[in-house]
Amino acid sequence: TELSNIRNFSIVAHIDHGKSTLADRLIQETNTVATRDMKEQMLDSMDIERERGITIKANTVRIDYRADDGQDYVLNLIDTPGHVDFAYEVSRSMRAVEGSLLVVDSTQGVEAQTLANVYQAIDADHEIVPVLNKIDLPASDLDRVAEQIEDVIGIDASGAIPVSAKTGQGIHETLEAIVQHLPAPKGDPDAPLKAMLVDSWYDAYLGVIVLVRIIDGHLKKGDRIKFMSNNTTHHVDRIGVFKPAMAEIDRLGPGEIGFLTASIKQVRDTRVGDTITHEKHGTTDALPGFKPSQPVVFCGLFPVDSAQFEDLRDAIEKLALNDASFSYEMETSAALGFGFRCGFLGLLHLEVIRDRIEREYDIELITTAPSVIYHVYMRDGSMVELHNPADMPDLTHVDHLEEPRIKATILVPDEYLGDVLKLCQDRRGIQEDLTYAGSRAMVVYDLPLNEVVFDFYDRLKSVTKGYASFDYQMTGYREDFLVKMQILVNDEPVDALSIMVHRDRAEQRGRAMCEKLKDLIPRHMFKIPIQAAIGGRIIARETLAALRKDVTAKCYGGDATRKRKLLDKQKAGKKKMRQFGKVDIPQEAFISALKMD
Ligand code: GDP
Ligand code: MG
Question: Which residue positions does the secretion signal occupy (predicted)?
Answer without folding.
Answer: none
